């Protein structure tokens, strides 16, 4: 059985679909999960979202123990959370940091992601379609090393 890919989402992403649609679009998190599962194919996928930093750290610990790769949209925690960064540094597999918006074209508070210091790659600005792109990229990284 192949090891699972983790897709971890941070605060406020449970509100996608209605949250600032001019920035994040109208795709819901449930629709994004379905896109990720389709992209994962026969690779198991664990899809999580929390508004709480500690829960996200716990899921990264789960990935450290059993995961093949991580796609993470830490949302606002990208710019503030040392605990999330420290947890990601313990993960030995590939990490794709994902942002629906292009954070580098937004307000300054959104432009310095701490998480990027642990990420293998960063996808920002592709909108919700960035998620399946990240999952497919992780599958290739994991399968082809
Ligand atoms: C999502 C958020 O919630 C923001 O705090 C980030 C990110 C951007 C996104 O584009 O997915 O700044």
Write a compact overview of the structure shown.
This protein is an alpha/beta fold and 145 residues long. The protein contains five helices and five strands; from the N terminus they run βααβαβαββα. The two termini are 17 Å apart.
Tell me the layout of helices and strands.
Blueprint: E1 5-9, H1 21-24, H2 29-40, E2 45-49, H3 53-66, E3 69-73, H4 82-89, E4 95-99, E5 121-124, H5 130-144
Helix pairs in contact: 2-5, 3-4
Bound molecules: 3-dehydroshikimate (DHK).
Low-confidence stretches: none
By DSSP, the count of extended strands is 5
Query: Element order, helices and strands?
Result: EHHEHEHEEH
The count of domains is 1
| Class based on secondary structure composition and strand pairing | alpha/beta
Report the end-to-end length measured between terminal Cα atoms.
17 Å
């Amino acid at each position: 059985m192949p090891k699972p890919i983790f897709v971890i989402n941070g605060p406020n992403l449970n509100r996608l679909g209605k949250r600032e649609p001019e920035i994040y679009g109208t795709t819901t998190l449930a629709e994004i999960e379905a896109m990720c599962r389709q992209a994962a194919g026969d690779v198991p996928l664990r899809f999580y979202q929390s508004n709480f930093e500690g829960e996200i750290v716990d899921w990264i610990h789960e990935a450290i123990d059993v995961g093949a790769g991580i796609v993470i949209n830490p949302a606002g925690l990208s710019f503030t959370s040392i605990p999330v960064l420290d947890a990601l540094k313990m993960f030995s597999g590939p990490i794709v940091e994902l942002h629906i918006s292009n954070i580098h074209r937004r307000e300054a508070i959104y432009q310095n992601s701490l998480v990027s210091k642990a990420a293998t790659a960063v996808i920002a600005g592709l909108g919700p379609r960035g998620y399946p792109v990240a999952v497919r990229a992780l599958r290739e990284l994991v399968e082809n090393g």
